[in-house]
Write a structure and sequence with these properties.
Elements (H helix, E strand, L loop, with lengths): L7 H15 L2 H11 L1 H18 L1 H5 L30 H37 L1 H15 L3 H12 L3 H10 L2 H15 L3 H8 L4 H37 L11 H4 L6 H6 L5 H25 L5
């Protein structure tokens, strides 16, 4: 009988540790996300939209604001792939340039909501007492108002503009992220390593940046994707109502304003189909990515 090497148990233990080290939470989450086929396809679609927006001047071949009264409301053709609008502007060119504005508003508004919500939610959960009560009651107040109505009122008072729209949408979306961060903070603040850090003199800012925010990052990423989708939809709605992005700057929402008559809807579908489909597909793609992220970070997934 052959004797086993004396160092075999140590070697097996080292191999087991190395195998466990390769299965990190990030790699496990990425593997779960890649199994979500619809989310992966949505990522590809969004990358395509972003690339089209970045290279819009090269791809379109037309100035999105160039008026050509000799080619008004022309149907799609080899010269104008998606036709022209009531002032002769190329619809395809405006669609690509509008992606910059709509995506920019969605990302900026969602970013503002995430930053504001993370800060207030973290402070509420970490400090507790009256700070928690004030922040949560403030969140209840913001959630009680319809975002569209409030944004319309703000735009009516301050005037419609992109910064006004971003601030209004962002400030009324922060409670969702704030509640998530507060819940994570409440579950962590009595953990031994946080108590030890407090005893060593760590401040609230250090605890938030080193422990709380990293722990809350997975659910925050899911909330952020949903906030982007909602912000894009709100931008389109407000621009359609004339209270968002103002002409001649193109956005998917104000491109739909040309389709407010039955004549256009029935006889000139190229004026509203392209921006309408772009809004619907983009919002759906972002929502599907959020679903994929939620499944990826869910610890109950096997």
């Amino acid at each position: 009988m052959t004797d086993l090497p004396a160092d075999l148990p140590g070697e097996l233990e080292a191999r087991a540790d190395a195998s466990a080290g390769r299965s990190t939470p990030w790699r496990t989450g990425l593997r779960r996300f890649r199994r979500h086929t619809v989310a992966v396809v949505s990522v590809g679609y969004l990358l395509l939209v972003v690339a089209a927006a970045v290279f819009a001047p090269t791809l379109s071949g037309y100035d999105p604001n160039a008026v050509d009264l000799e080619h008004v409301r022309e149907a799609p053709s080899a010269a104008h792939w998606l036709g022209t609008d009531p002032t002769g502007r190329d619809v395809f060119s405006r669609l690509l340039h509008a992606a910059r504005v709509s995506l920019g508003v969605g990302l900026a508004a969602a970013g503002l909501a995430v930053v504001f919500g993370t800060l207030l939610g973290g402070l509420a959960g970490l400090l507790g007492r009256w700070v928690d009560s004030v922040v949560m009651r403030l969140a209840d107040v913001f959630l009680s108002f319809p975002t569209v109505v409030v944004t319309v009122v703000v735009a009516g008072i301050l005037g419609p503009s992109v910064p006004t729209m971003i601030i209004a949408i962002g400030l009324f979306q922060w409670p969702v992220c704030g509640r998530i961060v507060r819940g994570v903070t409440l579950s962590l603040r009595e953990q031994e390593y946080l108590l030890a850090a407090r005893a060593a003199g760590a401040g609230s800012f250090w605890l938030m940046t080193r422990h709380i925010v990293p722990a809350a990052l997975p659910p925050i990423s899911v909330a952020a994707t949903l906030a982007v989708a909602q912000a894009i939809g709100l931008e389109s709605t407000l621009s359609f109502l004339g209270l968002g992005v103002q002409p001649p700057t193109p956005s998917w929402g104000n491109m739909l304003t040309d389709a407010q008559s039955l004549t256009v809807i029935a006889g000139q579908p190229w004026l509203w189909l392209a921006p309408g489909i772009a809004v619907a597909l983009t919002v759906l793609a972002v929502n599907f990515i959020g679903d994929g992220l939620r499944d990826a970070v869910d610890p109950r997934q096997s």
